[in-house]
Design brief:
By secondary structure, this protein is an alpha/beta fold. It has 15 helices and 9 strands.
Length: about 375
Amino acid sequence: MNPQIDTVNFDERPFLAIWEVTQACDLACVHCRASAQPERHPEELSTAEGKRLIDEIAALRVPVFVLTGGDPIKRPDLFELIGHARQVGVRVSLTPSATPLLTRDVVFRLKDAGLARLAVSLDGARSETHDGFRGMQGSFARTLDAVRWANEAGLPVQINTTFSRRNVGEMDEILALIAGLKITLWSVFFLVPTGRGKLNDLLSADEFEQVFARLHELALIAPFDIKTTEAQHYRRYLLQHRKDGHGPVAEKVADTVGRAPRGLNDGKGFVFISHTGEVYPSGFLPVSGGNVRRQPLATIYRESPLFVDLRNPERLEGKCGACEFRQICGGSRARAYALTGNVFGEEPCCSYVPRGYVQSPQEVKRATTLHVLQGA
């Protein structure tokens, strides 16, 4: 159990807030939710607006705050923003892109500015896979360099990996590579087909279950923590595993189980602020609840009908609405929206069928169509 998580009332404040400081990026990642471009958008939040947003994050006492992009290093005021966060007591993590802009000097400057954690992406066990994923030759080598530089600077490192059909076959090799690095967390993302993300790259429901099983096995032996993103039904998998007596739940995974009753999900303990100030339930769910230029973040999060409804499990439809795990899981609202256009639709990549649940003919038709689209 994580007492920090357990003390957060998701109706009042998020546990995790992510600010997309820019959509500018020199990479061309095949799965990029932002469809990032090289140049910065003229309507990005200004330095003053960014500091005001950070002050709101501080007032909300958000435990985890992440600066992301695009590539945050494309913003010349990045170090100033991190320094301001440190001054007002906000712990900041950063997800830069592994381009020539990410140098040893930059990593040390980030540490000096007050950065608490550096998160870099590793989407393959070899350069061919990773660089193909990222659209830039040399990104793989620079990612490994960044880990080493962060270790030198005494900056904790997180590795992010997005699994899709392009790289899931390298899962064990990726783990073997990561095991040789000094990191604190492996954050495993599951593709949401939005932005540049393609539906044909999405894993099937059965493949999700296979990855869940392997993740749990790895969590028992890995020297670092493992968490998932946009795989809310991993909590269901873990609780079923424990209930069915299939062996222990890894201690490192116990935190996930501990927060499961609170059901962290898109818009429910999670908020995403875009480069222009739009407030989304997730970076993968581009439906806005408001804009921080017009309303305080706290007001949008607490009172926006979108966010209020997303925190109500009774709004869930299909088998998610009938599922006994809906309070702790709820399925990916972003993936449901991406594939059905309905933020309350059922998780398209979950194979679990709730006890006594019978699909309507229309739901069977939709599920069959999805199965074909996924190439299963």
